[in-house]
Fold each of these.
Amino acid sequence: MNRRVLTILLFAFIIASACAFLVYRLMSKNVAAARPAATTGVVAAAVDLKLGTVLTASNLKTIQIAGSLPKGAILKPENAIGRGVISDLYEGEPVIESRLAAPGTGGGLAATIPNGFRACAVKVDDVVGVAGFVTPGMRVDVLISGVPPMTPGQTAVPVTVSRTILQNIQVLSAGTDYQKDAEGKAKSVQVVNLLVTPEQAQTLSLASSQAKIQLVLRNPLDTKIDKIPGTATSNLFAGDNGIPVPASAPAPRARRTTGPRPVTRGYSIEIINGSTRTQEKVASPEDKK
C-alpha cells in the first residue's frame, strides 16, 4: 500500500477518535442532568405556626430537599409532634430543632423561657401596645417615672424623677389582657412579657407598683450597657446644656463693727449776710479732747 494513503488513513482515524470522545462527553453531561438528583424527606410546616403552638400531625407535612439538609432538620414527624414552637414558622418552612421547645415541655410562653430566666409581665400604655412598636424578639430599655419616697428628716420639696432601670431586655410576647376597673367593668390592658433574670424581675415588679413604666425600643445590634443618670422635672426648664441654672447669689451684707459707734457732738451756726444765709458746724470742746 502506498505510504501516502497510510498517512491519510492515520490522520482520519485520529480525527474520528477525537470527535467520538467529544460526542461522548456531551452525551454524558446531558444524561447526568436528566437523571433526578437524590432527595431527602424532612418535616415542614403545613400552615403558618405562631409562637407557643403545640405541633400536631395536621399542621406538619413532609417535603423533599435535594443536596445538604438544614442543620438540625427533623426527618420524622413523630420527633416533632407534641413539642411547642418557640419561634414563628411559615408554611413550607423546614422544622428544625432550634425552633422547637424541648420534648415534654409542651407549648405556650413557658416553653420559650431559657434556664435561669423569668418572664415578667409589664402593663404599658396604649401608644406602645396598639401601635405595634413592641413585638416578640425586640430589645427594649425600661424607664420609670415617679416621685421618690421621702426619707426621714427630709424637708426638700419632692420632685418627679425619671431614670433607666433596665437595659437591653428581650420581649417575649405582647398582647391584650382584660382587667376590671374601679366600677367592675372589663377594660383592655396592653401587656408585654419581658425576659429577665430573677433579680431583674424583683426590680421590675417593684417598679410596676410604685412608678409609671415606659418601654424604649433599641437597635437589636446595640448591646452596649450605658451609665445613664436620672433626670428631674427641674432639668426640663434648665439652660441649653441641660444643667439647672443656679440662683443668683445674694448681695454681700456690710460687716458690723464691734463695740459702740462713736457719737459726734457739735454745733451748727447759721450766718446771715444780707440776703445770703450759710451754715457752719463747730466741734464741741468734748470732741476736741
Amino acid sequence: MKPHFAPARYDVVGIGNAIVDVLARAEDSFIDRHGLTKGAMTLIDAAAAERLYAAMGPGRECSGGSAANTIAALASIGGCYGFIGKVRDDQLGKVFAHDIRALGVAFETLPASRGAPTARCLIFVTPDAQRTMQTFLGASVGLAPEDIDVGMIADSKIVYLEGYLWDPSAAKEAFRKAAKAANDAGRLVALSLSDPFCVDRHRADFRDLVERHVDLLFANEEEIKSLYRVSAFDDALQKVRGHCQVAVLTRSAKGAVVIAGDEVHVIDAEPVANVVDTTGAGDAFAAGFLYGFTHGFDLARAARAGAIAAAEAIGHFGARPEAPLKVLIADRLGAL
C-alpha cells in the first residue's frame, strides 16, 4: 500500500500537550520511596510536581509532549509541519514556543494569559533505561475548540492526535473539531493511544474514535491489548484489523507490526549498541513512519524508517533526536 495525498501545505499537524520535560537519572529505590509507578505516566497536581522536583537529582529541561516530540522529529527529517497546543504566557511557555518554532514548525496557538502555568513532565530514568513520568498538565489542558485552526487542519495531509490530551472535556471537543475538519477536507486522522493507563480511563471513547474517525492508529503492545481488553497481542491484532485504515503496533525489542486490510508487515527492531533512555521511542517511531507514509514509502519501508528513528531515540538521554534522522534513514533506506 502506498497512500496518495492531494496537495497540502503541511505534511502533518500535531495536536497535543505542550509540555516542558525535566529529565533526571534515578535509582529504583527513588521510584519505590516516592510510590511512583515505574515505566508509566502518572498525572500529578502542582503540589506533587513541586515536591518531586525538589527531590529529583540534577535534571535537563527541554520542550516535550508526545505529539510535539513526534512533530519535532519529523521536522528533523524534512517536510512541513505544524503543532497546536496550549501554553501559559510565562517563561516555560516562551521556552516551548521558541524551541518548536526554531525547528521550523508552525506554532500559532495563543498562550493563556491567566490560570495554570505551562505544563511540565518530570521524567525519572532508571538504570534499566525505563522512564517513569510524573506529569503536571497545567495550561495544556486548557486547549479548547477555539484553539483549533481549521484552515491549518484542512491544509495538512494528516492531523495527528495525542491520546494523553483526551482527559479534559474541552480538549475532547477540540479533538472532535479537528477530526471533523480533517474529514470534511478529505484528509486523514491519526491517533496515538499514548499510554495503557490512558486507554484504561477512556477505553469506550477511544474505541468509538478508532472505529468512526481514525485512519491511522499508533499503539504499543500494552496499549492495544488494553484497548480490546485481551491478554494476548495476537488477539488484539485480530480485533483492530478493519477498524482503521492502518494500525501501527510497536513491540519494543520485538519490533513492530503494521496492518492495513489484508497486508501485515512484521518489522524487526533496529539494533542499538546501548539502550540509555526509552523516553520518546514511540514518538520517534511515529515520526519515522509518518514521514515515510506522507512521502511515498510503502508500509514496510515507512515502518523501517520508524524503527530507525526509535533506535536513535533510545540511544541517548532525552526524547528529541540528537543525530540527524534524515541522514540515518537515508543511509539505511536509500535517498529520501
Amino acid sequence: MPDTVERFLLPNDAVPKHYSLELTPDLENLVFTGKVEIDVDMHRAVNEITLHQNEIYIESSCFKSGDKTIDATDFHYSNKWHTVKIIFDSTLPTGEGILSISFKGILNGDMAGFYKSSYVDANGNKKIMASTQFESLDARRAFPCWDEPAVKATFAVTIIIPNHLTALSNMPEVSTTHLASPVGKKKIVFQRSPKMSTYLLAWAVGEFDFVQGTSKNRVTIRVFSPPGRAEQGRFALDVGIRALDFYDDFFQVPYPLPKLDMICVTEFAMGAMENWGLVTYREVDLMIDAEKASSQQKQRVAIVVAHELSHQWFGNLVTMAWWDGLWLNEGFASYMENFCVDALFPEYKIWEQYTTDAFGSAQRLDALKSSHPIIVPIKHAEEVEQVFDAISYCKGSTVVNMIAAVLGKEKFREGLQHYMRRHAYSNTETVDLWNTWSEVWGKDVAELMSNWTKKTGYPYVKVTSEKWDNSEVSITLEQNRFIADGSQSDEEVVWHIPLFFATEGNVSSEAVIMNQKTQTFVIPVSGSKPWLKINTGQKALLRVAHTNEMISRLQPAIASKHVSAIDIAALLLDAYALAKANLAPLESVVNILRCMENQDSFVVWYAISGVLNGLYILMEQLNNPEAFKTFVDFGHHYVIKALEHVGWDPKPNDSHPNKLMRSTVLGLLDTFAWSDKDVAAEAKRRFDAHFTDPSVLPSEYKSSVYRIVLQNGGVKEYEAVLRTFTETEDNSIRKYCMNTLGATRDPALRKRTLDWAVKSGEVKLQDFFYPIGSVSQNIQGAEIAWDYFKQNFQTIKAKLAKASPSLMDAVIINSVNRFCTKERADEIEKFFQANPLPSSERRINQLLENMRTSAQMLDNISKSQLASAAFWH
C-alpha cells in the first residue's frame, strides 16, 4: 500500500492568511447571517477562487487589491464536493488582496457546523443555545473557507447577539459594544487567534454560568454550564487547571493562549472537541456532582479533560498535514490522557485499566482483516469519518506506549519537547516525529516503528521451543500476524517487536527487539520452579501463545499473586483470543478461569468479566439449553463468590480500584444472577428505596440493579424507570435509564422502548442509540432490535442524514453486534448491500467479520467439551 495517494485539495491559486469573520445568529428563527473578509495571497492571476461551503448561501462577494475592487459575477456550487467557485468579472491580480463575502446559513439540528441545542433551565423553561462542531469537515457549514488542516490562518471573530446572551470564542473578548441599531443587541469582538486550522475555530452563544480558576502560568480557565449548574463543573475545572500545569511542565512549551474555556454543550455527537481555547463537551463528560458521582464518572471526566487538553499541543499547536495523519492527533491524545491522569490521580491505577481498555480495543479491532493501518491513505477528506475509530485512537496510543517503553522516559520527553518547539503553529507528517526521536535516541525510530503504523494488524508470538534449568530459560519465538479467525495473512510482515520479560523477582528494564521471523532468547530465571511471562506489562501490541508448560509454571505464581495483575489479565485475554482463532484449545481458557476464582484485582476482574460475557453470548446461541444452563450456573457460582468478597455496600476505606472491582462484579449479576432470589430481592429493595434515599444505590452499579429489577419485573418497574428519565434533568441519571430500559423481558415493552428512542422526540439525537443497546442485551432482545432496525431503516436514516456518521455506526452496532451465526451475518450483509451506507461501510464490514469469527468459535464450541453440561460442573 502506498504511503500517500493523490489528495483532492482545493486549488492553491489563492492562499488565506487571515479571516475577519462577523456573525449574527438568530436563535429564535434558527438562522444566521455573516460577513467574512479574508486576507489572501494570490499565487496566480485567475478570475475565480474556489472555497469550501456546505449549506451556505452566498449573497455577494468582491475582491479588493489596493484601491481596486473587483465584483463577483457568479457562484458555482458543488453539492458533491461542498465547494463554491466564485467567478469575478475580471482577472484577479497576484500578490496580496482581500476576498469579501456576505452569506447566510441555518442553525441546524445535526450537531455539526454551527448548530442549535436545546435544554431546560432551572425554572423548567426550554432554552436554545448555539455552538460549533467543525472537525473534520464542517467549518464550511458555518462560513466559506479553505477547510483543510494544512491551510492554517489567523482568525478574528465578531459576534452580534441580544444583550441577555453570552458569546464565547477561541480567544478572549477585546470589546463589547451595545448597539443603537438594532436595538437590544451587542457586538462582541474577540482577539485575533494564533495561526490554526479551520476545524479548530469555535464559538458558542447562549445563557451560561461558569466557575473559574487560574493555572500556574496565569492562564484563566473557566467551565461554562447551563444556568444554575455551575458547581457541577467544579471537578472538571480542578482537573483542567492541574492538567494544563502538567502539560506546560512536560512539554516545556507553555500553553500559548491567554485563556482556556471548557463548555457543556447540551446536544453533542462526540464526547468532546479540542477547539483551541474553547473546548466543547458532551454534558456527562464535563458536568458531575463530585459528592454523588461514581468513581467511574469522576475518572471519565478526568480522562476526557486530560485528552482534550493534550490536544492543545498535539493537534492544535502542531497539526497533522492531512487526515491520513489523524493518529498524530488522536493516538497521542489517547496516550497522554492516561499519562496525565496517572500523574494527577495515581490512585486510579490507570495504566492497569489501560490493559483491558484501550489496549484491548486495539487488539480486538486490529485483529480483523477489515482493519486498516494507523496511517491510512485518504484521497477525499470525507473518508476520514471512517477512521475515527479504535485504530487511530487506541492502536495509536499503544504505538506511542511502545515507543515510550523503548526510549525510556527522558528520551521520550526530550524528543517531544524538540518536536513541539520545532513545528509550533505548523503541520507535520509522521516522519517528522520519528526524525525528532531518532535525533535524541541515536537510533532509527522510523525503522523500528514503520510496520506498526503502515501495515494493518499486529503479531502474535508463539513459543516453538523452550529449555529450562534453574538459572535460565532458552526460548525460540516465532512471529506471525494475528488474525481473529486464525487465517493466515496474504502478506508476510516482520515487525520489530520490543519484548519485556517477567520472572520471579525480576522484570526487564530494557527491551530486546525481535526483528526476525524466528528468534531465540536466553532469559535468566530463579526459584525452585522458575516461570516466565512474555510481554510483561503489555508494552508491545501483540498476543502471546505461552506453552502449556509455561502456563503450568505460572499458575502457582498467579495463585500467590507473584505475577502482576496486568500480566494475569493478559494471560487470560490472550488465551481467549487465541482459542477464538482456533490457535489454542477452548478448554484451556476455562482452565485458566478456574484458577482465578480468588483474584481480588479489579483489572483481573475486568478480564474475567470480558471472557465470561463473551462466552455467554456464544453459549446462549449454541442450541444446547442444558449446556447453556450449566455454563450460567458456572458463572453464577463465580460471581456470587466474588460478591461475598466485595459486598453490596461501599466500605469507609474503599480505594478507587476497590470501587471499580465492586462495580465490575455487580455488573455481572444482571447476566449471571438476575433470577437468583437473594440477588433479585436485594436489587428490588435498593431500587425501591433509592427514590427517597439515593445513597442506598451507588452510581457504580445503578445500571446493573435497574436491569435486574426490569428483568424480574413488569410494567410497574418499567414505568418507574421511564418516569425517572422524564422527571430528571440530570443527564447522568437519564443515561442510566436509557442504558437499561430495554432490559425488560416483555417483548411489547422492548418494542415500546425502541419506538420511544426513535420516534417519541423525548430522546436526544445524540443519545437514541443507548436505548437500542439496552434492548439488545440478550439474543431475544437482539432479534427484536434488528427487526425494528430493518422495518424503520428509512426513518433512522433520515433522522441521521446530516449528523455525524459515528451516530449511525453506534445504532448499527447496538442493533446487530450480539449475533454470532454465519446465517445472520449473511442476512445483515445482504440488507446493507440493498441499503448501502457509504459512511458506515468500514464499520459494517468489521461487524460482519467479527460475527463470522464468532460463528467459527461457536462451531468449535459445539465440538468441544464446552458443549457438555458435565464440563461446567
Amino acid sequence: MSAAVSPLELSLVSAFVHEASGIVLDSTKDYLVQSRLGPLLQHEGVPNYAELIRLARADATGRLTGRIVDAVATNETSFFRDHQPFDLLAHKLVPDVLERQMGPGRGGRPRLDIWSAAAATGQEVYSIAIVLKELLFDLNRYWIRILGTDISEHALAVASRGWYSANEAARGLTERRLQRFFVPDNGGWRIVDELRAQATFAPLNLTAGFPQAGLFDIIFCRNVAIYFSTANRRAVFNGLAEHLRPEGVLLIGSSESLIGVTQFFVREEFHGVDYYRKSP
C-alpha cells in the first residue's frame, strides 16, 4: 500500500508540481498523490513525500523533478480519441489550408504544419498522420511537419518509438487501419516508417513558454489545459495564438471552452463540431 500523504505534504507536493509543470493539484487530490508518487517513494528509498520534494528541489540535474512530473501527469490517450476532431481535420481544416496555397500564381509543394501540443505517448500524432495519408495519398507531394510535444519525457520516448501493445492499438484503431498503417512487432504493433518519418517529438512545458516552436496551420491542444490554473490557461492559449499562421485553427477538448480565457480566437463550427480560428 502507498504511503499516506498528510495535508502539509499534499500542500508541499502541490506547490512543487505547480511550479514545475503548471498542473494544479487541489486538496482533493491526496489519492492521486498517494497512488502516483507512493511507488516513487519506494523506488527512490525516500521515507516521505516532504523528503521527496526536498530532494527534488536540491537535484540540479532535474532527474527527480522529471520523475515526479511524469508520475503526476495524466498521459491517458488513445488513437482517434473523440473522432470528431479528426473528421474535422480531414473534411474541413486540411482542405482549407491547401486551398489557400493553391491559388493562381502559387507554385511549389504546398506546406502543412500541425502541432500536437500535449502529445502524450503519440497516439494523437499518429492519428493525424493517418488522416493525412488517407486524404493526400502521396505525402511526398507536400511539405508536412507534425510536431508532438509533451512535458513527460517518458511519454515522448514511447511516442518516438511508435510501438504499441495489442491493447493500446485496439483502442481507437479499426482493423483496416491497423493492418494498413502498422506492422506486427514483438507481440504488438509499430507504426509504418512512412508515417513515423512525418513526426518530430520534443519535450515542452507549455506553461514555461515556447518561443522556438515556429508557426503552424493547425494546433491540437486537447484535454491538458483543464489541469492548469486560469492564469496559466490564459497564458498558454494566448501563446498558442502567436504560433498560428493567419487563418490558423486551434482544436481543444470537447469539454473545454475559451470563453473568458482569451480574446485571440473566434469560435467557429462545422457540422456540429466547434473549433477556434485565430482572430484577424
